[in-house]
Amino acid sequence: MSNTQVSSQRIAGSRIASLKSWGQGFFWAILLIYALLTLYPLIWLIISAFKTNSEFFSRPFGLPEVWHFDNFVRAWKSSKMATSFFNSVIVSVVSLVLTLLLSALVSYVLARFKFRLKGWTMVFFIIGMLIPIHSTLVPLFILMKQMSILNTYWALILPYTAFAMPTAIFVLTAYLATIPKDIEEAAYIDGTGLWGVFFRIMLPMSLPALSTVTILTFLHSWNDFSFALVFISKSTLKTLPLSISMFADGFQTDYSLTLAAMTLSVLPTILVFLLFQEQVMKGMTAGAVKG
Amino acid sequence: MNASRVRRFIAAALLPSVILYALFVFVPVIWSAYYSFFNWSGIGEAKYIGFQNYAELIRDSVFWHSLKNNVIFVLASILGQVPIALVLAILLHKSNALQRFMRASIFMPMVLSSVVIGMIWQYIYHPQIGILNFLLDALGLGSWKMQWLSDPDISIYALLPPLIWNFVGLYLIIFISALQNIPSEIHDAAKIDGVSGARKLFTITLPMIWGTIQVAIILCISGSLKSFDLVYVMTKGGPAHATELLATYMYNSTFSTYRYGYGSAISTAIVLISLLFIGTSQWLTRRKAD
Fold first, then answer.
1. Mean per-residue pLDDT for A43-68?
2. CB contact under 8 A, A39 and B274
3. What ipTM did this prediction achieve?
4. What is the rounded average pLDDT of the residues A16-30?
5. Mean of all residue pLDDT scores within chain B
6. Residue A287: what pLDDT?
7. Do the beta carbons of residue A252 and residue A176 sit within 8 Å?
8. Sorting pLDDT into bands at 50, 70 and 90, what band is A20?
9. CB-side exposure of A234: number of CA atoms within 13 Å?
10. Element (H or E) spanning A231, and its range?
């Protein structure tokens, strides 16, 4: 091969290489635009919340001239957001604790013991995942009315826990099955009882799986709307999504108030997501990936 | 440790959960089926009317229209969310900072409450102050402006972008996990054999994550059949039932028109239709050996 041949090959090679990297760069630009477009509605919401109503009408795309922080104060007060925040926190935290406790117990038994009805128990909990939750709205309403727990915190805590259990059990059982048996056996030999092993060994060891379940359950309870809509009508007990939906009735014309209220309501979940991105994403897709 | 202590422990561990779960998940479904045979306004006596509710259901054009809308949602999910998420997953499964940012951005709508999502898109679609119509005007496409949510012909289709926006992130992450689970030996073998690009995608990568794609399709179906929050907030099933879904129709029949028996019939129908769809999709996408 002569020198000129080699160098022209090199030039051709590098031309192809630079074409390729141009193509790739273009490609990534498109992807980036897609990602930013996905974020845009949210960004638009937050920016618009700082505008006055007339600004919102006339310049929906621009930045606000004056950043009206008072919109948020008004929204907080007028929708009694302190109350709905509080209600959401109570309902979500209590159902989370219940879910973790009950599901961990069930998962411990399913993962580490053999007994006659084991297979049926698993099927029992898994089948529930296929039931559309809205089919249960009417009968649950009637049931809770007869139990006189409608319009109480339990009206939400109990259904949230019940519906969170299948996924929680699914995730926890899979995790607990991977813990080596020797740890348990050593504890039994030491004289620790079954409950002791559960609380002092199994629970602490399953922290990763517990945090996955926490994210899933908490987000679902926090963002739930249908159950809150049907089971709670007392305004002092409204959870956040329900109280925000009051602004959506189509008669609201104070848009800056509504936008500010909406922004306030999504702030906690966005913050949690930004801080714990990987865990949130993994947690919410847990149970859907085979293997 | 004697056997009876272990048995008692197992019982104690399982009982509270089983009772709670049975009471709040299974009993309602069965009760719903029971109430569907009655005529009941929620208070007073319930009158047994046999299969009349179901007979009415079959003749009810709103029911069939709602079912059609649910099917539109299911198809939009399977043909929209899944392919988009699949393509994005194949492009975005590496670990550098830019890709992490893009994945997080696309996933973000999943953590928002459906109420907020519904309201954001309500504002985007608003005929007077919405940014969609504003944008069309600014681009000189003013003639394309429409009453996105109040035009009976297009409102159901206008509901699809928020739906896709909401859920693409979920499937993206699911597919990325599946792709990352493919053993590296497979990639090495493909390299050695000289298989790459589109051929590798269709003959190796996709078949290897087929199980996950099947699960994604099930999630799409059950999720779309459950759609209630988004539609209820944006249109309440209107205008004139144009965007009615099975779930919203059930809600309206029960709590707005006080026909608990009829609402229960719709509820039961939803469960049966759900099982039918899932069963069919599993059968259609089955593979002979795994």
1. 82
2. no
3. 0.81
4. 70
5. 84
6. 61
7. no
8. low
9. 11
10. helix A226-231
Q: pLDDT value at position A160? A: 93
A29: its two tokens:
């630009």
CA A203, A207, A212, A217 dihedral sign is positive
- Is A120 an interface residue toward B (CB < 8 Å)? no
Q: What pLDDT, on a 0 to 100 scale, did the predictor assign at position B290?
A: 42
Q: What are phi and psi of B47, to 5 degrees?
A: -100, 130
Burial class, A285, CB count within 10 angstroms (exposed 0-12 / middle 13-18 / buried 19+): buried
Q: Does A102 touch chain B (CB under 8 A)?
A: yes
**CA A136 → CA B85, B225, B275, distances in Å?**
31, 14, 15
- Higher pLDDT: A286 or A199? It is A199
Sketch the domain layout of chain B as residue ranges: 55-284
Within 8 A of A38 by CB-CB distance, chain B residues are 105-106, 108-109, 165, 168
- What confidence category does residue A5 fall into, taking pLDDT thresholds of 50, 70 and 90? low
Q: Which CATH superfamily includes the segment(s) A79-285?
A: MetI-like (1.10.3720.10)
Question: What per-residue confidence (pLDDT) applies to A180?
Answer: 83
Handedness of CA B107, B108, B109, B112 (dihedral sign): positive
C-alpha distances (whole Å) from B12 to each of A110, A208, B19, B135 are: 13, 25, 11, 62
Topology of domain B55-284 in CATH is: MetI-like fold (1.10.3720)
Structure tokens that stand for B72 in this block: 């539109």
